[in-house]
Fold this protein.
Amino acid sequence: MSDTSNASNASNAPDAADTSNAPDTPGAPDGKARPGHRKGQLGQIVRFALVGGVNTGTFFVLYLLLHPWMPYFAAYSLAFVLAMVGSFFMNTYFTYRTRPTWKKFFLFPLTNVTNYVIQSAGLYALVTWAGMNTKIAPLVAAVVAIPFTFVLSRKILIPGTGAGAGEPDRARSTSTL
């Protein structure tokens, strides 16, 4: 009788053998923390920092190229959106090692809303109140937003890393970009 009940429970459980979309997540299929979880999370932080550096460089180059052709805030906003698209793909493939999906693609900008608000407020404050040069202020504002962006992008790109981080992802999306 126990074999039958185990077989029926296994058919309703997430596929533990499916590692094709299994990034460095905090929990194993049984809900317990995996050995080496901290190492995986540290790897994500390091990769996030590398992607952030590349993304910040991309953003800044775009900003400097656009700045002569439009007001600084318009150049900032357009460079931000273009860099965000690149950031999505770098973070899905490299940082979190997961497949991009349409759902993640459309949710990813929501994670950047906080980043945008923090950076925009910082940019405005640094330029208007602190008198900082408009070519340097975006970099300073970006540094302040980094921790917020990591937490939010991780939550969107790796479902199940929020409040119930120890629980397996029960609703994996199979649609990819």
Observations:
- DSSP finds five helices and no strands in the chain.
- Residues 1-33, 163-175 have pLDDT under 50 and may be disordered.
- The two ends are 44 Å apart (CA to CA).
